[in-house]
Specification:
CATH superfamily: NAD(P)-binding Rossmann-like Domain
GO molecular function: oxidoreductase activity
CATH class: Alpha Beta
Strand content: 5-15%
Structural class: alpha/beta
Number of helices: 9
EC number: 1.1.1.-
Protein name: SDR family NAD(P)-dependent oxidoreductase
Keywords: Oxidoreductase
CATH architecture: 3-Layer(aba) Sandwich
Order of helices and strands: EHEHEHEHHEHHEHHE
Organism: Halovenus rubra
Length: 254
Amino acid sequence: MKLDDRTAIVTGASSGIGRAIATEFAREGANVVLADIREESRASGDTRTTGEVIESEGGNAVFTQTDITDELAVKQLVERAIETYGGIDILVNSAGVTSNNSVQDVTDEEWDHVHDVNVKGVVRCSKQALPHIRESDHGRIINIASQRGLRGGDDTEKAAYVASKGAVTGLTRQMALDYGPDGIPVNAICPGPVESGMTPIETDEDEQELLDGILTPFVGQPEDIAPAAVLLASDGGRFIHGHTLVVDGGYLVK
């Protein structure tokens, strides 16, 4: 029970990596505030909500519908966490969107939306949660970036997404400098190819394309990312500051 009696907000908690992190946090004893724009999972095969999964395992969770591009909605999310559990120890900024255009073709609206969610969403949530995280003896912020923010996309036409995730890694380092002296480690996780609603596997060709880019004989699952988040959120992560933890099946080295 590495996170026993701690309260965590996880954005993007209804599907994929956010769902896996929220579920694993609950298994480790955390009270989890699930934030997403919709409660139902976007991934095929997920017939239960994240909250239902956590509650079926005896954990504690509450869902709050949240659009992280809306400052008021984020403020209400934080207020719900305080009202329900009395404080906030951990923030996981996992909500994200992607896009599929090159610089030449991306529209201003598309570019702005991707950065509004992937970058400004991290800023909004952190800004609202930090006053409460500062009161915790176990304060942590974990930002979900991407290996594409370090290397670029394996495929083409990901300009807005790659730029946004590169921004998240830089923002994480600056936040670590700003809040590390307050005893709040701020770190990022850069997942590699992970099967999810954002990266679905619908054909054998889809699976083989992902396998060709990594070293493992299997495609990563959201559950492969969750243990890294537990480490960073737990006492075992107290000396890790401003780090970008790559969990990618060997994508970068290959």
